[in-house]
Structures are given as structure tokens and as C-alpha cells.
What we know:
The chain has eleven helices and seven strands. The protein is an alpha/beta fold. The chain has a five-stranded parallel beta sheet with strand order 3-4-5-6-7, with helices on one face. Helix 5 packs across helix 7 (128-140) and helix 10 (205-212) runs parallel beside helix 11. It is globular, with a radius of gyration of 17 Å. 34% of the residues are buried.
Amino acid sequence: MNKNAEETEDLLNELIEKLPSDFEVEIIVAPAFINLASAVDHLEYTNIDVAAQNMHQAESGAYTGEVSAKMLTSIGVRTVILGHSERRSLFHETDSIISYKVDTALKNYMRVIFCFGEELKDRQSKQHFNVVENQLTDALWQISEFSWINIVLAYEPVWAIGTGETASPEQVQEMHSFIRETVRKKFGSAIAEDVCILYGGSVKPDNAKEIFSKADVDGGLIGGAALNADDFVAIVNAI
């Protein structure tokens, strides 16, 4: 919940100016709902895509204040972030609700950036692998093999989000390797190798290159650092 309309436009203009036009990295920005339509228009002739930060699981109905998949696609937004740790912790979204949202997004031909990750207590009790496996199983194992073409995985250890703490590159690689192997066991090697696995958790310009150099890290889900154009561009250039 950052950036009003003017601030969003200023940030997008900075990104357009500072990002190389021939970059091979896929870049997606996720403004607040009220700025999505203008962002889509603003970025129409660039290589920067637009995603929504969330959506409701129902197609329509008496859900005052919510936004549906069809509302998003009607303005040109075809990617949505689901299961973000803040949605889980602050708004009590369960794996069951998130699974429903995933199904709805895929039904509407949207791409899903699916977020998941353990809390500090899970890491300390050495249950982090079990927690991550359960989150994947409960929210994604119902989808078809064909649907994986529209799934991006985003591992975000809750204890490393907005805290200044960052999982070590070795911890990140260990978990990303586990995630890929977990997908492989259920859906096969082709899907496991093709699926994009992002890391989110206090990624900054000074640690991005080392994190992204790990074999199973395909990119980042960037929070606070994405609010500053220079920092975000530096992170993009580190991939």
C-alpha cells in the first residue's frame, strides 16, 4: 500500500528511463488497485508488464470492496500475486482460500505468482521444509499439468520480509532446490525444470547478485527496494 497516482506515474517514468530497452529479464510491476489501469496504459509500449497484488476468489457477487479476475483482465492485467505473506498473516487467508483463488485466476487465463514460505518459529523448529511442502500441496496440487505454464513460484521466508534479515544465499538455494524437487515428484521433471522460482525477502542491490547466482533461483519478488527506481534497476541488472 504505497504510492498514490502521481507517485506511481513518477516511478514508472523513472523505470522506463533507466531500464535498458534491450534487457532480457522479465519485469513486472504491481501497483495498488487504483493505479493498475493507468499503469497498463503507461507501460503499453514498453517491456514492463503489470500485475495485481491480490484478487477475490469469487467471479462476482456481494463482496463489497473486492476485485475479481474479470475486472482485472478487463483492464489488461493478466498476472496476479496470490498468497502473499501479508495476505496470509494480516487478512487470515488460508491455503484453502488461496487454492480457490488460484483456480479462479487460471480459469480466467491469468498467470499466478504464488507466494509461500515459513515463519521464524517453523525455521527454528526445523519444520520449514514441511511447512513449504504443505503450502504447495494444499494450494497447487489440484491444478492440471497444463496449468503450470501459468504458475510462477515465489518463496518468501516470512522472517526475512521487511525485517532487514535475509536468508543466506545457501539457505535460499537449499529451499529452492527442495521446492523444485517437490514439484518434480508430483508433476515430473519437465514442469519442475521449467517453473520459475523467485526469492522474496529483503532483496537489495548489495545482496541481489549473490542470491540470483544460485542455480535454482530464477529471479526475485521485490518489496521495499522496488519503491526506489535506482535500487530496483540495480536489482534487475543483478539477474
